Amino acid sequence: MRLPIQYLFCCLLLPILGYTQQTAEHLKYLAQKTPSLTPEVFAPNVISTKSEYEFGSVFNKTATAFYYGVDTGNTSEIRFTELVGNTWSKPKTILSHEKYGFNDPFLSPDEKRLYFISKRSLDGKSAKQDYDIWYVEKQGNTWTVPINAGTNINTKNDEYYISFTEKGTMYFSSNRKNSANRKQSFDIYSSEYKDGKFQKAVLLSDAINTKYYEADVFIDPQENYIIFCARRPDGLGRGDLYISFKNTDGTWTKSVNMGDKINTKGHELCPFVSKDGNYFFYTSNQDIYWVHTKVFDELKK
Length: 301
Fold this sequence. Notes:
- The chain is mostly beta strands.
- It contains two helices and 24 strands.
- Strands 2, 3, 4, 5 and 6 form a five-stranded antiparallel β-sheet that branches.
- It is globular and about 45 Å long.
- The protein starts with a helix and ends with a helix.
């Protein structure tokens, strides 16, 4: 019996396509073996090194490009690596300056902007005394000069860390309410993006914010949960990660400590969840760690 040419074509091509797809999946996340429910150092000796302090990491939607912050001991800078063909490029510095640092990178929902924080002055010629939120825009294979996120976001005090909902609402932290008796008065705010600009920032409820320090916020793109760093009396170390879930009425559950599986006697900060919702990244002991997001299930209960 003579088989149709289309049948023979499929028999030959489909295994190749399946192999290619499987290989592509394996190459995501810097081709690292994915973690289970136990946190592991991410990309040891490639991203997380013994000689520097790595923090503030973010992948693109396809997990084929990675941005992260590094404290070199002299300054803070943002580095980048991407999957080119079947190989990840050597990490390179894309934002650095001798007078002021860059850190806390985060991509906009359309991935055309890279946001970060810096003490850069508005004219770019000198350093200032407080952190602002900035961004650069992708133009071909290059980035624009830094652009300030504006006065609805930034104040004369510090603004830290950035994350976005899928609709473009920015969540960030600020100590704009700082006072003499609240030296660590960082709180978490949100700002909607409408008509090409960010709206006036809104303080989140007391389910999230307290009289203590709350910063380094990651918002789930669908706003189902929020993770942030806090320094509270029930904490395990210098700074712990907390989580809160969205109620059906739109309010937030009272935030809870993520426990000793995540938190240590040290400082846990810089939370990020991959776009596929599978992996939770954060900084601990001056390295970047990751773990499967199934660890959230017990906390939600």
